[in-house]
Design brief:
The complex is a heterotrimer of chains A (about 750), B (about 150) and C (about 475). Chain B contains five helices and no strands. Chain B is mainly α and about 150 residues long. Chain B folds into two domains: about 60 residues; about 90 residues. The N terminus of chain C is likely disordered. Classes of the chains: A mainly alpha (about 750), B mainly alpha (about 150), C mainly beta (about 475). The interface between A and B is large, with 39 and 48 residues. Chain C: Component of the oligosaccharyltransferase (OST) complex.
């Protein structure tokens, strides 16, 4: 990878100077783009090489499952898919509540390859889709940047940056089969088409832009970013007095067609005309009609008349529109801003009102080192690039500026939105970098004037004999000495190399772990793979009833659905907060409270993730407080966060833990039987680094069904109601007493029980 | 299609010379009338409308007027649809929405066509010839109506 | 008909195999007879030794019988009775002449007459009719699948497993038997229960126990169809591995010079179930002592030398707990399932590997001979049984005149077909030979499958030509379009 990207950036300038005629340049450009695409793909394959061709993390498992469903059942069944294996007993109208773009894309690729009789596994398509699209994204970045500058080296640099910048790689490594995988390509390409439509003023480009916008809407919820950014760009242009008929044509074509296209997606439905997020676009649409009309009027009537017309007409229309908007919003026709959007304006909003959003780590505000981590040197080239845009300030540069401002803000608010910032950073940084390189690398043209200058000044110097005067007498201001040029160029090359190095390092270390499979090192340095998740999921899949309901925290819902193929109560599509809170309550309450809840929901197995043995910190005990908080949101009387802390306000799991904590189902399930793995007094939780009491928790209503090799996954079976009608605590204590008494005797009654 | 198009394009070129002359005439006419009646706003609006109509009648080629007639028709249809929606309820919201957005979309597409083919805007659209504009218009309309039909159920 | 497994050494032998490939390819292994059929009483069993071997976790029975023609005419049809329940489970019936190994050509076929009758027959056709009063010694061997059932059916994780086997002390026969003896070989001397019957001669009570062996008999003359039910319960703390379905694909690529194997197993453990839920603490602790257990922990699959690129996956991806050792002397694939497979549990998985064609393929003119093992798969001390086996041989595109021959018992082969399958940019489709078999065990691991087919050079050049020409036409098309647009 390093070689390829290096080859793409460094020889570029050299080769361009070699390529004299146009066709050689084109060929070179195509070749370099191919190399960049190859580098982009290659750098995303770490996880496949290191582990295997596997779907990563959580959400991709759902997408993968949906894709398999699409491939197996066809498009129409997929469109109308009602999934009764999730959100038991509610089910989920999956076909109408997902963004189908990703699945349809891979389904189409699958069928195309099948038509060519290439037998490729749908899993491999899904795994490799994101890297493949990242190659396309690099190409789209090239096109977009080429619209900004005349220097084609900027486009190539942008493509190279886009291809390997960690901010984008984080969401598009092989196996990260998520909506973002194709959405970033669509985002960049839609912006390119928008700029193109704006520059040409053609209906066709606008229509293309709308089509890609429609595709984007079908792919990712982040389409709202485009929906807001393009109107904003149009608005800023109008405010700057840059209204043009091209803008009118481009925007209206985009809006009229794009809105209709977006409404084709069932999940989006009427949202473009009924939610506040889409109102700016509609408003600008109307505003542009007005402005266009005004422009027409202005060209038709004298200016004084026009002024009065402007005051009266505009004032009236604005008043009516604003009143209408307020009226419709209060009347409930237009949905107010959704919670996720509020959390974009006020970062503490979610923490207070919607714990379920706040509990997701990627919805946290970005820490500042993350910018440097994800973008490295681009982050300081980025303002320079934006400044360059200010210098030229064509319509398209305004777009970059607007995009840069908004992208930066959103990226600062939410870690996840770093992704939308990345393209503009790449574009702006490439503009800056290419400007630098173009200035300092061209040694032919500056050398000639420099040499002349030198001779001339040498001649004049003898006459004037003033070195200071000599320097001021130079008519051209600039840096001409080869040393300073070489220094700058060298430094730039060094930075580029460090950037490549950094990207490789970040990708390989931070973003290439599938998180389903964990890697560790053996004492001898060889890689050891910890595969507990799949071990337990496979056990569930093979050795439980086809319709056994699994209760787990929602993080694992998609994985259970995808890998274990069993119905779940809640999953990562967190559409029903109450249902999640119910599970949270079951997990955080005492057994006597939890058992009826589990019976009501026909739960057969309960799955918890426990990292205590291995020191795996992402386990359920560490997520437990979120369960408590979410449950507290619905049942503030029954679940109280305070009760889970010690009187001194500490969150502890050892013998000092609060009674509520010790009696909670989650605590019991995590530590059940755990201390018997250790010699007495040695039981230790390696995540929280505490010693556990010797007496482990007692479970009455559940029994341990399976525990994976490293104890990461523990599965419990919910006991049936007792045969004799005793409650479970009684029955369990009777059994234990029985065991103690009859331990030495023959095992007649126990065999009877097993029958 | 082809003969009609070539005929109209020649018509626009011939009318272009007369456009500038009439525009200047309208300008002087309007400025004098504005000076006379600066007292009341309503009268001013009347004046504006009047001069607008005058300008329009003088400066617009016949083919563009045809387009304008179509746009006016679309406005009427859209208004009717909206009125129906307000009065009789929006029960099949899909149907209303697709019908209404079909008219609105067609309107803006037609407006785009009108702008692109207008001779005065030629400089703004260096790469869009009238033929190209018309082809784009057809393509755009087809996409629009495809989506509408798909959305109407 | 024993072929040496070394493919390189037997070109002459292989050509003779190709010659009789036509004759021996079985079309159907069932013979239809009228529903009132009874085996004619033309033989008697002069002496019979019945060995029931339960050392592996399926029942392997062998009957060595001296038959005598008691009818006036020469006879060549000897019938072997089974109950209809046994008919479902029996497999791999083979007949040999015990006296001389060169007498070959016994054919064994199931007799179809009355599906409701409890007694069903297999017909053994002798290679040459047996003349009146003459005798011949037959060695008949077969095995029953799913014949051993755990008792108790559910036990603790660390308990010993006991299996139960039911059979008849008198060897089932359609003919009277003058003298017979039944030997039961067991995996251990821990035999808590076995049926005792009254003895004969100087032995008071059968069986006689000799270590891990039980001997019933010798018995005096027994009429045809006599039965004496015996049950044996013995300790066998090993997994009862049952593969209900095995799909084995062998893909031959002439261009790549590669033979790709892929096997998909649906594996069950038919041993005792867990009486309580699985306990990880106990399991982890017991692993330090590595005791005998009835859970399937590991499988070893010895492959042909030269195998490479082995993989082990299941439905959710690669199973990281596998090891593959390949060197000049051996190639062993060691598999550990994701979890220990206890009784009643299931573990489906897929393995695959590649090998060079030079180990398997021989060419003479445009005719090719492919010699591959019919069955590979785990080699376990406790044995593995296969319910349904489907072997598909994917030959190159354009191969025709396909014939096959296998050294596995032909009564196990239930059918075969030759179809076309389109894959990897095929235009016509590859020739696929599908062979279906049932009730096999791992004893047949080294049985061969020999496939002969014709494959011309033109057929080999077809694909590159088609790809080349289609690429060219695409480029020309693009060029033409770009010209038109301008």
């Amino acid at each position: 990878m390093a070689v390829a990207t290096d080859a793409s950036s460094a020889p570029m300038e050299l080769l361009v100077s070699v390529g004299k005629n146009q066709s050689t340049k084109t060929l070179l450009r195509v070749l370099i783009l191919c190399f960049i695409a190859a580098a982009a793909v290659a750098s995303r394959l770490f996880s496949v090489i290191r582990f295997e061709s596997i779907i990563h993390e959580f959400d991709p498992w759902f997408n993968f499952r949906a894709t398999k469903y699409l491939v197996a059942h066809g498009f129409y069944d997929f469109w109308n898919w009602f999934d009764d294996r999730t959100w038991h007993p509610l089910g989920r109208v999956t076909g109408g509540t997902l963004y189908p773009g990703l699945m349809v894309t891979s389904g189409a690729i699958y069928h195309a390859l099948r038509a060519l009789t290439v037998p490729v596994d749908i899993r491999n398509i899904c795994v490799l889709l994101a890297p493949a699209f990242s190659g396309l994204t690099a190409f789209a970045a090239y096109l977009l940047t080429n619209e900004m500058t005349t220097s084609s080296s900027a486009g190539l640099l942008a493509a190279a940056f886009m291809g390997i910048t960690p901010g984008y790689i984080s969401r598009s490594v092989a196996g990260s089969y998520d909506n973002e995988a194709i959405a970033i390509f669509l985002l960049v390409y839609t912006f390119y088409l928008w700029i193109k439509a704006l520059k040409v003023g053609s209906v066709m480009w606008g229509a293309l832009c709308a089509l890609f916008y429609g595709y984007m809407v079908a792919s990712w919820g982040g389409y709202a970013f485009i929906t807001c950014l393009i109107p904003l760009h149009a608005f800023v242009l109008v405010c700057m007095g840059r209204f043009s008929n091209r803008l009118y044509v481009a925007y209206n074509t985009w809006y009229a067609l794009g809105t209709l296209a977006s409404m084709q997606i069932p999940f989006v439905g009427f949202a473009p005309v009924s939610t506040s997020e889409h109102m700016p676009a509609l408003g600008i649409f109307g505003f542009l009609q007005l402005v266009a009309f005004l422009e027409y009027v202005r060209s038709a009537v004298p200016s004084r008349q026009f002024q009065t017309f402007l005051y009266v007409g505009l004032g009236g229309v604005f008043g009516v529109a604003l009143l209408g908007l307020v009226g419709l919003t209060t009347g409930g026709y237009i949905a107010p801003w959704s919670g996720r959007f509020y959390s974009l304006w006020d970062t503490s909003y979610a923490k207070i009102h919607i714990p379920i959003i706040a509990s997701v780590s990627e919805h946290q505000p970005t820490a500042w080192p993350a910018f440097f981590f994800d973008l490295n040197m681009l982050i300081w080239l980025f303002p320079a690039g934006v400044y360059m845009c200010f210098q030229k300030l064509e319509d398209e540069h305004v777009f970059v500026i607007v995009y840069a401002l908004f992208g930066s803000y959103f990226a600062g608010v939410m870690v996840r939105l770093m992704l939308t910032l990345t393209p503009v950073v790449c574009v702006a940084a490439a503009i800056a970098a290419s400007q630098l390189l173009d200035t300092y690398l061209v040694y032919k043209s500056p050398v000639a004037p420099e040499a002349k200058e030198e001779e001339v000044t040498d001649g004049t110097a003898k006459k004037s004999k003033q070195s200071a005067l000599r320097s001021t007498s130079q008519p051209v201001v600039g840096i001409y000495t080869l040393i300073s040029k070489g220094f700058i160029a060298g430094a730039m090359t060094l930075f580029l190399l460090i950037f490549v190095q950094h990207c490789t390092w970040v990708t390989s270390n931070a973003y290439s772990s599938p998180s389903v499979v964990l890697a560790s090192r053996m004492p001898d340095g060889s890689q050891h793979i910890i595969d507990d998740y799949r071990e337990a999921y496979q056990w569930l899949r093979q050795n439980t009833k086809e319709d056994a309901k699994i209760m787990s925290w929602w993080d694992y819902g998609y994985q259970i659905g995808g890998m274990a193929d069993r119905p779940t109560l809640v999953d990562n599509n967190t559409w029903n907060n109450t249902h999640i809170a119910t599970v949270g309550k079951a997990m955080s309450s005492r057994e006597e409270v939890s058992y009826p809840i589990m019976r009501q929901h026909e739960v057969d197995y309960v799955l918890v993730v426990f990292g205590g043995l291995l020191g795996y910190s992402g386990d359920d005990i560490n997520k437990f407080l979120w369960m408590v908080r979410i449950a507290e949101g619905i049942w503030p009387d029954e679940v109280k966060e305070r009760d889970y802390f010690t009187p001194r306000g500490e969150y502890r799991v050892d013998s000092e833990a609060s009674e509520t904590m010790k009696n909670s189902l989650m605590y019991k399930m995590s530590y059940y039987n755990y201390c018997s793995l250790f010699p007495p007094g040695q039981a230790q939780d390696r995540v929280r680094g505490v010693r556990l009491p010797d007496q482990g928790p007692v479970l009455n209503t559940l029994e341990e069904a399976y525990t994976s090799e490293n104890w990461i996954i523990r599965i419990y079976k919910v006991k049936d109601l007792d045969n004799v009608g005793r409650d479970h605590a009684l029955a369990a204590s009777f059994d234990r007493g029985n065991k103690k008494k009859k331990a030495g005797k023959k095992r007649g009654p126990r065999v009877l029980r097993a029958e | 299609m082809a003969p009609k198009k070539s005929a109209t394009s020649s018509g626009t070129t011939s009318s272009s010379s007369s456009t500038t002359a009439s525009a200047s005439a309208a300008l002087s006419n309007a400025s004098s009338s504005a000076a006379k009646s600066a007292s009341s706003g309503a009268q001013q609006i009347d004046q504006v409308a009047l001069s607008l109509v005058q300008h329009y009648q003088k400066a617009t080629p016949q083919r563009t007027k045809l387009i304008d007639a179509f746009m006016a028709f679309l406005v009427v249809v859209g208004a009717l649809q909206f009125a129906y929606c307000v009065l009789a309820g929006n029960y099949p919201f899909n149907a209303f929405l697709s019908g209404f957005s079909a008219t609105v979309g067609q309107f803006v597409l037609t407006a785009s066509l009108r702008i692109q083919t207008t001779e005065a805007n030629k400089s703004e659209f260096p790469s869009v010839s009238p033929e190209r504009a018309f082809a784009d218009y057809v393509v755009g309309s087809m996409i629009l109506h495809f989506f509408c039909i798909n959305f109407i159920n | 008909m024993k072929f040496t497994a070394i493919a390189g050494a037997c070109l002459s032998l292989l050509s003779s195999v190709a010659a009789d490939a036509n004759i021996t390819a079985p079309s159907s292994s069932k013979v239809a007879l009228p529903s009132t059929f009874k085996p004619p009483q033309v033989f008697k069993n002069a002496n019979l030794v019945h060995v029931v071997s339960l050392e592996k976790n399926f029942a392997k029975e062998s009957i060595n019988v001296l038959i005598e023609n008691v009818s006036p005419e020469p006879q060549d049809e000897y019938f072997l009775p089974f109950t209809s329940e046994q008919m479902e489970k029996v497999g791999g019936i083979e007949v040999k002449d015990r006296k001389s190994a060169d007498v070959v050509g016994f054919t064994v076929e199931a007799v179809e007459f009355d599906p409701l009758s409890d007694t069903q027959y297999y017909r053994i056709r002798l290679p040459a009719p047996l003349s009146p009063k003459s005798q011949q010694t037959l060695g008949i061997s077969f095995h029953y699948l799913r014949a051993l059932s755990p008792l108790p059916a559910a036990i603790e994780q660390a308990d010993k497993q006991y299996l139960l086997y039911a059979f008849s002390a008198y060897c089932p026969s359609a003919y009277p038997t003058l003298k017979q003896k039944t030997e039961v070989k067991l995996p251990s001397a821990d035999i808590p229960d076995y049926t005792t019957i009254a003895g004969s001669g100087d032995v008071k009570e059968f069986p006689v126990k000799q270590g891990s062996k039980l001997i019933y008999g010798p018995f005096p003359e027994v009429p045809a169809g006599a039965v004496s039910a015996i049950k044996v319960r013995f300790e066998s703390t090993k997994p009862v591995t049952h593969v209900s379905h095995l799909e084995r694909d062998i893909e031959v690529s002439h261009w790549g010079g590669n033979v790709a194997f892929e096997e998909r197993y649906t594996l069950f453990n038919h041993g005792a179930n867990l009486s309580a839920q699985f306990n990880r603490v106990k399991w982890a602790q017991s692993q330090y002592f590595n005791p005998q257990t009835y859970a399937l922990k590991e499988m070893k699959i010895p492959l042909r030398v030269g195998s490479k690129d082995a993989y082990f996956t299941d439905v959710i991806g690669n199973v990281s707990t596998s090891r593959f050792r390949s060197n000049k002397r051996e190639a062993v694939l060691e598999l550990k399932p994701r979890y220990p497979v206890f009784g009643g549990w299931k573990y489906p998985f897929t393995i695959g590997w590649n090998a060079d064609t030079k180990f398997f393929l021989k060419k003479s003119a445009s005719n090719y001979l492919l010699n591959v093992p019919l069955l590979e798969g785990p080699k376990q001390a406790e044995g593995v049984e296969y319910g349904q086996v489907q072997v598909r041989v994917l030959l190159p595109e354009g191969a025709d005149n396909v014939k096959f021959y296998t050294t596995a018992p032909e009564s196990s082969i239930t059918g075969h077909s030759v179809d076309l399958e389109r894959t990897y940019l095929d235009t016509v489709g590859r020739t696929v030979l599908t062979i279906k078999a049932r009730n096999l065990v791992d004893d047949f691991r080294d049985r061969e499958l020999i496939v002969s087919y014709d494959y011309s050079t033109m057929a080999g050049l077809r694909k590159p030509l088609i790809i080349f020409s289609s690429m060219i036409s695409i480029f020309v098309g693009i060029w033409a379009i770009s010209k038109v647009d301008l």
